[in-house]
Amino acid sequence: MVEPERWTAFTTDPTGGNPAGVVVTDERPDPDTMQRIAAEVGFSETAFLVPDGPGRWWTRYFAPAMEVPFCGHATIASAVALGSRDETLRDLVFDTAVGEVAVSLGRDGDGVVATLTSPAASVRPLAAESLHALLATFGWAADDLDPALPPAVGHSGGDHPVLALRDRSTLAAMRYPFEQLRELMHAEGWLTVQLVHREDERTFHARDPFPVGGVVEDPATGSAAAALGAYLREVGSLPEDGRFTVHQGVEMGRPSRLDVDASGTGGVRVTGAAVRLP
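The structure corresponding to this sequence follows.
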């Protein structure tokens, strides 16, 4: 097995963004090998890619504690890694456990930028008892929520409950008991919890606990940003052109920027840069 590359996505600064392992190899590794390598790398996800035809890549994602069906930041990191090797690459398809994920590559003054189109995105209500348990886990009350953005579950390759908080300070002070939230998320089948505060029509601040993957918090979560886009589209709170920006990782000291386009129907587009780590 080749040595994993280490990248950080949704940033051009090595000290920011969400780190991901990237393994490009000629043969499909077995799940135990991928799980072991992901645990050794220690990032929230490591992506494993095997060429599967022109522009196509068999792709799997592993967190330190589990396989993840789809991971946005590792997709961005992997695409930028491939684009950095071959400047002719423009359009890629990642064959993931949840289906095809299209990725387009572009270039700007900071290097390669990737845009993924998420798997089919959808939204469903968050059950009252699930909301009650989630609020209790964080020590919040219903009055802490933004009444203009009701709780729901967004799906984009995985389920992400969306809680919009009224005050930025409440989000910034987020704490939770790791095992308690992990057990709740396992029981509900949630991948991360998308906690957001809307600053204005185009600007969101987010924090994403990920205890089911063995990680306290993600500094940038592309799949959750896509789920948020689907959610905003569903509740009619998108800007007219469907575009907005998510700022995440600030409280962790790893600021990240995720540019989202939820216009139209179907999958949601999420754009970001990435930089290789030493």
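The first helix runs from residue 31 to 41.
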